[in-house]
Structures are given as structure tokens and as C-alpha cells.
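HUMAN: You are asked to prepare a plain-text protein record giving the amino acid sequence and the C-alpha cells, both parts labelled.

ASSISTANT:
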Amino acid sequence: MEQTKILFVCSQNKWRSLTAEKICEKISGYSVRSAGTEKGARIRVTEGLIGWADSIFVMEKKHAARLRAKFPASLQGKQMICLQIPDIYRYMEPELVELLQAKLSSYMQMPDNRTNFMQRILEPEVMDTWEEAVAYDSMDFTEVNAAFAKSAAALGPVFGNVLDAGTGTARIPIALCQLRPEWKLTCIDLSANMLKVAQENVEKARLRSQIQLELIDAKAMPYPDNYFDMVISNSIIHHLPDPLPFLQEVKRVLKPNGGIFLRDLLRPETAEIRDNLVEMYAGDCNAHQKQLFSDSLRAAFTLDEVEMMVKNAGLDGLRIYESSDRHWTVERAWCETV
């Protein structure tokens, strides 16, 4: 059966039209693409794309006007529909997904379940109370932390100035010091109570000379450009409503030859998969700790979303992959010369 070809258009092809393409790409009977009208668009609209499409959905009236002005001949006989969706949403933002689904259902045969993935629900960016910090620190992440430290150490230099963004209670930096005793670690977090627990852990480990703890927002760091040999981070991304500013800061403060090791949770496709992961990995925890893990899974990103964010941040030379049944990883090895 011949597929209906649909082109989604916005300005930059980074948020709205790209989200529309993503949520419609697996709907039977349709072939979908997306593009932008601006010079700096991720993929810019061309005469070939206009000719390919059976129907064109634009996000705003200005996009329709631009297309009519530039491609008058190619648009003859084409159906062009304005969805009237303003440029106030990020890629795959739940409100944008719901809005697109509602508007597109009038024109396309959307499936009953609309999407085959669980939508993202934010959790607080900062675990701000002493009780939350203590509860988090008491959870047994020994195996996961050790694996993170081993992988990060293998990618970094022997001697280095390393940033740990979203350090929490500093369990990973402490593990790293055993593997890389020559590293100087700057460990930042936006939770004062997390850092209080971290300070206790660092002092017990007798690593105050090697680990520096700072109350810093990772989205707006005070450090100069090209300052760190490596940036690592475990589970900061899912706490951020929009991780792009953080990833842009990573690029800014990192030396051109610097290493990167970022890891976080994957958002499961369904609530059933999420609940199974909670039972599998937090089954022995108390109810509050189980809820923390469940909320974190729901706030996490998919691998496709991570790939798009990394690309939009301008970071390159990275390996991006699913590293476990509940984690994604972004990595790049430190190199001696650029």
C-alpha cells in the first residue's frame, strides 16, 4: 500500500517539527519528514522536500508564508495546514507531544494509544532536604558507582583536572580517587544538603586534598573556558527540565581534547517496564526510596532524545549508547593532542 508522505515544518527543525516527525514516524500508512525555514535550520526546507510531500503541516502562519514566497510552483496542488503551535516548547516536551497529538488527530489516523512510549514527568531539579539527601546516600549504588568510576578512569588522563557535575553525596569521586590518585576533582551540586553529606563522606575517606566540593549550578558555571581535562556526570540530566544549557556549559569549560563521561537513566517505554525495574533494582529498599527511583525513571530521557540534545549542544566525537537495561552513556576519551 502506498504511504501518504507528510512534511512537518517549523523555523529551526530542532523542537516542534522534529517532535512531530518523531511521534508519527511509526504510524502505519505514513512516511514523515521534517525541516525548517531558517538558514540555521537543522534540515532546511528544499524544493525537493516540497515536491516529495503529499501534505505539509506548518507550525505557524509565517512558515506557510515563507514557503509560498519561495516555492510557489512546487506548492501548487499541495495541501498545507497550519497547526498554530507557538515556539515555546522543547523537543519531545510532554505538553508539545499532547498538543501535536490532539491537532494531528483531525488529519491523520493516529493510533488509539497515540504514542508507544511513556511521557516524561519532571521531578524536582534539586533534592533539597536533609532527609532526601540521607535517604539517597543510604541506597546501595556500590556496584553501579564502581562501574562508573572504572569506565571514567579508563577514558581520562593519568593526571588531570576533572569536573564532576551533580556529584550528589560524592560517592563516585571517592571511588575515582582510588583509581586515579593524581586527579584533582572539582565536584559541584546545587543541593546544599547533598554537599553536607558529601563533605562527611569525603572526610571519612580522607580525601579533602583531592576532592573540592562546591555549591554551583551546572547550567551556569563560573569556570573559565577550556578549563577541565575531563567532565563526568552521573544522573544529573534527568533532574533538568532542559539539559541543553548544561551540555553547552560542558562544551565551554572542557578543553578541546578533553574527555567526557556522562551516564543517566533511560526512560522506560511503559509503566509496566518501569515498575519491573523498580522491583528488580530497588526491591529491598523502603517505600520512599522506591518512589525516588520510580520518579527518576519517569523523568529520564530516551536514547533518541539524548542523541538530539548532544547534537544541539555542539558536542562531537562522542559515543552514545544504551549501557544497561536502565542506563544510557555518552563518552569520549581524553587525548593528548587535538
